[in-house]
Specification:
The chain is of the alpha/beta class. Helices cover about 25% and strands about 30% of the residues. The chain has three domains: about 200 residues, HUPs (Rossmann fold); about 120 residues, no CATH class; about 80 residues, Translation factors (Elongation Factor Tu (Ef-tu), domain 3, Beta Barrel).
């Protein structure tokens, strides 16, 4: 079998190539360049030239052919343009998931096959099993601290049939040890961070390549708002019913608070010894305008860094973004009620079953363990398939359910049978 390893210059893909070579496979390496632009990137964290140099040295050390391919055009079309479009809508995409679906196991796989490869191998910490009928399963990686199955949640059976994950049964320290014993140039290299193949970025600067910066209000929401909110009280009532909810009630519960009922009235007053007329907001028990931002589309639910807001005893988090009115709503404290929700919805056309044979039928309910972001501990939940989408009802309210991110569900034995994009 001829195998192409996607060699990134990191230690994980290096050891994946090393293991396959030792197992006697016909192995070659290919490095892909997916990004040229430097605007918004924080230099020194993910320079592709350095990555390519290290990858080529690794291939030489292992004794396998090395190839280079430029996929930057298709990466911009399928990943970066999607990112810009999602942020413009007030949603927060996951480019790493898209990169795997659209690039590594699509455009890159096609290029590898043109060079004679039967399969593509990567350094992901996840496991793959093939059932007697040829159906492929994705399972969590053995290392609980490095499991990367989440990033593969949009792959299909055809892609999985051509995929190999040689280090999925290993833990990170073992991978480092193997790399050092083999004297690989990547043995001590730090793990890459940031956007897949772009690196660490100043996100607002990066997004400003296409999205216009427009100042707007930062509004802090106080606890009395929730005591007076009919929507919040209704959500608590519905959540208490558990799974005994109608389709309409599930739709209600999965719809976040939009804060559009918060309005401010102004008053004129005189200030200083010259009695200069000024305008200020009248006191509002629900909320207060506490600052300005450069564009609501540059923020994400649950964000706490980059807000530039001081004077609080506890951290301040983004609760919601109103893209139409260019307002971001924030709240103080990680247990602020505006951060917590019990239910999310995945639109019918956004539901993806890695295992089509396990797809749920309308009216069906199942128990799964769910995560709504990478590295989040798995959460117990009930999945309910309805005509208007797949609803995930959590046993415990979840912090920062974020539209545009992927919800992923797992079976008790660690298999990931499906995923979907969180709506609204």
């Amino acid at each position: 079998m001829k195998i192409c390893v996607g060699l990134s210059g990191g230690v994980d893909s290096s050891v994946a190539a090393l293991l396959l070579k030792r197992q006697g496979f016909d192995v070659f390496a290919m490095f892909m360049q997916n990004w040229h632009d430097t605007e918004g990137t924080l230099h020194g964290d993910c320079e592709w030239e350095e990555e390519r140099f290290v990858a080529e040295m690794v291939a030489r050390k292992i004794g396998i052919p090395f190839y280079f391919i430029d996929l930057s055009k298709v990466y911009r079309q399928r990943v970066v343009d999607y990112m810009f479009d999602e942020y413009a809508k007030g949603r927060t995409p996951n480019p790493d998931v898209l990169c795997n679906r659209e690039i590594k196991f699509a455009a890159f796989l096609e290029a590898a096959q043109r060079l004679g490869a039967d399969c593509v191998a990567t350094g992901h910490y996840c496991r793959k099993e093939t059932l007697p009928d040829g159906t492929c399963r994705i399972l969590e990686g053995t290392d609980p601290n490095k499991d990367q199955s989440y990033f593969l949640c949009q792959l299909n059976q055809e892609q999985l049939s051509k995929a190999l994950f040689p280090i999925g049964d290993l833990c990170k320290p073992e991978v480092r040890r193997l790399a050092k014993e083999a004297d690989l140039p990547s043995a001590d290299k730090k793990d890459s961070q940031g956007i897949c193949f772009v690196g660490k970025v100043d996100l607002p600067v990066f997004l400003q390549q296409k999205l216009k910066s427009v100042e707007g209000d930062v509004v802090e929401v106080y606890l009395p708002y929730y005591a007076d909110s009919a929507k919040y009280r209704r959500d608590q009532e519905l959540a208490a019913k558990g799974t005994a909810l109608t389709d309409g009630e599930l739709q209600e519960l999965s719809t976040p608070i939009d804060y559009s009922d918060i309005r401010f009235e102004t008053e004129t007053y005189r200030s200083g010894k010259h009695h200069i007329k000024k305008t200020r907001d009248k006191e509002n028990p629900w909320a207060k305008r506490i600052g300005r931002h450069e564009g609501a589309q540059f923020y994400t639910i649950g964000q706490r860094k980059g807000l530039g807001i001081g004077g609080h005893a506890n951290p301040v988090f983004v609760l919601a973004m109103d893209i139409g009115r260019n307002i971001i709503y924030v709240g103080e404290g990680e247990n602020h009620p505006g951060l917590l929700r019990s239910c999310l919805r995945i639109a019918p056309d956004e539901i993806h079953w890695i295992r089509p044979d396990l797809a749920m039928k309308v009216g069906e309910e199942r128990r799964y363990r769910v995560r709504i972001r990478y590295r989040q501990p798995l959460q117990d939940a009930t999945l309910l398939m309805r005509e208007n989408g797949l609803f995930i009802l959590f046993d415990q309210p979840q912090r920062s359910i974020t539209p545009g991110q992927f919800a992923v569900w797992y079976t008790p034995d660690g298999e990931m049978p499906g995923s979907g994009v969180i709506a609204q």
